[in-house]
Request: fold
Amino acid sequence: MRTHSLNKRFHLVCSFIVLLSVILVVGLYYLQIVYNQKYKLCSDRNRIRVTHLLPKRGRILTADGQVIAWNIHKYRLIMERCSKGDFTKNMQLLSGKISLSQDDILSLEQKYKSRARFMVIKDELSWQEYVNISMMFFKFNNISIENGYIRGYPAPLVYSHITGYVSQNNQLQLQTGKSGIESYCNEKLTGTLGSLQTEINVLGKTIRHLSREDPTDGEDLTLTIDSKLQEYVHGLMSEHKAGGCVVMNLKGEILAIVSIPSYDANMLAGKMTHAQWQSISQNSLYPLMNRVTSCAYPPGSIFKIVVAYAALCEGVIDANTTVFCGGGIKQDGHTFHCWNRGGHGKVNVRDALSYSCDCFFFEIAKKIGIDCIVKYAKLFGYGAVTGVELAGEVAGLLPDHSWKFLKYGTTWKPFETMIAGIGQGALLATLIQSAVMMARLYSENFDLSPTLLPVKTCRAEDKINTRVGSILKEALHQVCVKGTAANSCKVSYGIAGKTGSSQVRKLKKNMVGIDQTKIEWKYRDHAFFVGVAPYPKVDYVVAVFVEHGGGGARVAAPIARKIFDWLIVGVK
Reply:
């Protein structure tokens, strides 16, 4: 009986040992086989520090070699997750060695409590702070200094709407373009991250480097911009509250592009105070908006070029067709006045463009219809983005029957076609679209597109009607010889162009014909001029827009004349 009891106990103990052995083996299997990668990763994370090696962002240069966006080296102080004791010790050692405000210290304490893996103690160390920390670096635990870069703009006001600005990821410190060519060409400029694997001990100090993968720097971009011309145009436009100007050649290469008011790109690329951000974001003139590419306005009389081209191509008129202008036309129960209330008398298409007769274009717009106008406007580049390498470009608006019905649920009226025929009403266009329109007309190439990057060839698969084009070119030259721009653009080397004024509100009867300088600034007409020179062998296109300038002939055309003088005869 006793022997039987002992055997039973023996078997029970053996069974228990076998069970424990099985559990142990299964546990080891899961630890070493099933969860091998998980625990290896945890171990590696404790002993291996992976540091991202930042690439240099590509520089941006002008055609004549001036750097307009570059990189400035900086040192960043990092603390990895550590014990409360190490955190307190590190902060005590840093006291007096680097400048940290009370708000900075409180912010770091909050980050520590959130158990963030990495904390940026200070993003940009001064040289003296870097030296102070380096001399006592052996005393710190879990502290490291990383190399990095901040974006710098040597002439931020002159080039702000070309370069745009960047922001950076606080964790990786990788800069990302937010506007301008910084955003449009961000992938090329950014490059790729590298990495450095370092083995560390329990105190976070480096034992050895395990592996290194070098970063690939971003590409430099050389633009078509002429730095001296850009500075000159910026100076001219800065005499006005708001506006824009673009200068390009007949290949579509942009030589200068200015939007006023501009902004300090360095301020936006760095750490801004709340007051600094408010000074930009709450500015009533909206300095962040590029008035050349990102703002659409009624183009005014500039659009008459498109309407004239459409009418001539469709055979609705010829070069000798005349319309009588008595100062106004009645339509749909209203009288639509010409800007010259006394009328122009009998005018043909050349005269109508030279003197910007509204009545002539009222009549021919009605004859060809809005759909035909829209068709030809698209050929000249209106109603779609031009594709220039600047983020935020808008397409403008070419209104027609379907647009009116979808937006308002009503039918299109004949008077709306008349208004569109003189570039007013719901019609909207950007300044760069008007510049492209002139470039396409004079290059005789509907495929031309504007660019900030050099082009070798300019395709001409879709050419304009040369017969019609020659009529318009002659008429636009007469604009600057005897027409609306004669006072400012009658020059020996020859300018051809078109003035334009765009109303911002319906005028009362007692305000018709009043001097624009006597009207409150925000109610004045917008002023436009698009022109080419020298004539007839054209090299350059200039488009000028002065917001609430009052009149294209009086304000915008003289600016274009000065730019042409600078380009062709060297007058400054």
The chain has 21 helices and 19 strands. Residues 227-263+288-569 form a domain with the Beta-lactamase fold (CATH 3.40.710.10). The chain has two domains: 51-222, 227-263+288-569. Residues 90 and 335 are 81 Å apart (CA to CA).
